[in-house]
Amino acid sequence: MKVVVAEHAGVCYGVERALKLAHEAARCGGEVHTLGPLIHNPQAVAALERSGVSVAESVDDVSTGTLVIRTHGVDPSAIEHAEERGLEVVDATCPFVSTAQRHAARLSREGYTVVIVGEADHPEVEGIVAHAGGHAVIVESAQDLPGTLPSRRVGVVVQTTQSPSRLQEVTAALLPRVNELRVFNTICSATAQRQRAADELARRVDVMVVVGGHNSGNTTRLAEICRAANEHVYHVETAQEVRPEWFRGVEIVGVTAGASTPDAQIAGVISAIEAMGADE
């Protein structure tokens, strides 16, 4: 059995940057907390805990030390509150997320109805909404658009881990309904690369395994894309979840991983798959 890894898979620049900032803060000493999980990868978050970086659910839970802002970004008022409490703030917001936040803020200031293509309950989207002044229309697909828009001047931004097809679908549905439409494609380049590579690989293998947090939006999206191309797709976080029955009679297994999945986690899953192939 052969295992093929997607050309683009695993940790992206924004996640690497955030992990580096958190570990640097820990090495400086004192209490270090992240505001919510730094990234959507439980194993990486647990590793940070072991190095002295714990998770705080709110600014009020931290009384001293350093507060690291998660890659998904936050409401700007949370940063202001942390600084007012005398905390040292390290902003690990992904640069692509920061771009989406800036565009949303500018569109709101200029009087556009802000439409965000993304998941309403995702922390990244919640942060973008806050930067838009707390008012935005959030949709995951064209079907979610309201029957009546607040205005006929609309600006669109997109959650960085969404797929281009979803953005295209929503903008195509908006175009005949507005007088002015501004669209900012804020999907990050790493996400787009991983999605294309995963789709291409899924089409030429027997089984596809997607590695990453079950709570990770970008990893879940990779699994969705792979399932559209291959009916045998499995989303796992760790090697312990891999099952031998998935690979019986299989010749080629494809592996991809979300942008928040460390290399060691991917390697562990690949080793487990290869061991099962050797046992046949």
The CATH class name of the largest domain reads Alpha Beta
Q: What level of helicity do the residues show? A: 40-55%
What is the CATH topology descriptor of the largest domain? Answer: Cobalt-precorrin-4 Transmethylase, domain 1
CATH superfamily of the largest domain: 4-hydroxy-3-methylbut-2-enyl diphosphate reductase, catalytic domain
Report what the structure shows.
By secondary structure, the chain is of the alpha/beta class. It folds into three domains: 99 residues, 4-hydroxy-3-methylbut-2-enyl diphosphate reductase, catalytic domain (Cobalt-precorrin-4 Transmethylase, domain 1, 3-Layer(aba) Sandwich); 81 residues, Rossmann fold (3-Layer(aba) Sandwich); 92 residues, 3-Layer(aba) Sandwich (Cobalt-precorrin-4 Transmethylase, domain 1), CATH 3.40.1010.20. The chain contains nine helices and twelve strands. The chain has a four-stranded parallel β-sheet, with helices on both faces. It is flat.
Map the helices and strands:
Elements: E1 2-5, H1 13-27, E2 32-35, H2 42-50, E3 53-56, E4 66-69, H3 76-84, E5 88-91, H4 95-109, E6 113-117, H5 123-131, E7 137-139, E8 153-158, H6 164-174, E9 180-183, H7 189-202, E10 207-211, H8 217-229, E11 233-236, E12 252-257, H9 263-279
Parallel strand pairs: 1-12, 2-3, 2-4, 4-5, 6-7, 6-8, 8-9, 10-11, 10-12
Task: Describe this structure in a few short sentences.
By secondary structure, this protein is an alpha/beta fold. The chain is 40% helix and 19% strand. It folds into 3 domains: 99 residues, 4-hydroxy-3-methylbut-2-enyl diphosphate reductase, catalytic domain (Cobalt-precorrin-4 Transmethylase, domain 1, 3-Layer(aba) Sandwich), CATH 3.40.1010; 81 residues, Rossmann fold; 92 residues, 3-Layer(aba) Sandwich (Cobalt-precorrin-4 Transmethylase, domain 1).
